[in-house]
Amino acid sequence: MSPMPYSDPRLVALYDALNPAGPDTAFYLQLAQGATRIADLGCGTGLLACALAEQGHRVTGIDPSSEMLRVARERSHGDEVTWIEGDAGALAFAGPMDLVLMTGHVAQVFLDDDAFLKTLCAARYALRNGGRIAFDSRNPAARAWEGWTKAESLRRVEVAGVGRVEVWHERSEAPAPRSSGRLRFDTHYRFESTGETLVAASELRFRGQDELADLLTKAGFGPVQWYGDWDRSGVGAANCELIAVAR
């Protein structure tokens, strides 16, 4: 699994400002209708998990970062969610689920196919009969990484208690994701109040639709519904997302 920067409380404090609720949140909230028990695997700071709990679902949020879960517990409706520090192995102790979610491109932190397959298998065994898994991954055909330069990715956010922060990505030139499926990049965080800059190194795996479909089949899932965007449009080269929903 790719190392992620969310053990540092200074970066965790920025997460919600950089990743607010959006069309993806609305998509998953609608998808969850009719489900009683839901697991949010890689739940982060709990934005979606708490929104699901507010709708009346019984939610388990699982994440390896204790700092992310600390923020999640303090959210509105955070006391209605069962929080577990861990990975997909924790699903075995969470009880049968109607829906398992992996959102925010969590699927891409699994660099090795065997590791991702193990996670998909854990999700499959955690689902009751007729239960579903849903996750999203960036569509490699859209070549999102080409915009991961300072000039194209620079953002400025204002965070309570922190002040203004500049954030940008800088990708590695090699290996190229079109040949290896992997991309290394650095995310820079410049705190204007102190002048300090933190740099977090990350690596993601870009898998095509056929690769994802093969892994879902190996994990025991049946037919997959595919979407290319949060409006439920079909998959095409111009679509930024690969969204899978499978039973």
UniProtKB/TrEMBL annotation:
It comes from the Bacteria. InterPro entries: Methyltransf_25 (IPR041698), SAM-dependent_MTases_sf (IPR029063). Residues 38-131 form the Methyltransferase domain. The keyword Plastid does not apply. Pfam families: Methyltransf_25. GO terms for molecular function: methyltransferase activity. One of its GO terms (biological process) is methylation. Signal peptide: none annotated. Keywords: Methyltransferase, S-adenosyl-L-methionine, Transferase. This is Methyltransferase domain-containing protein.
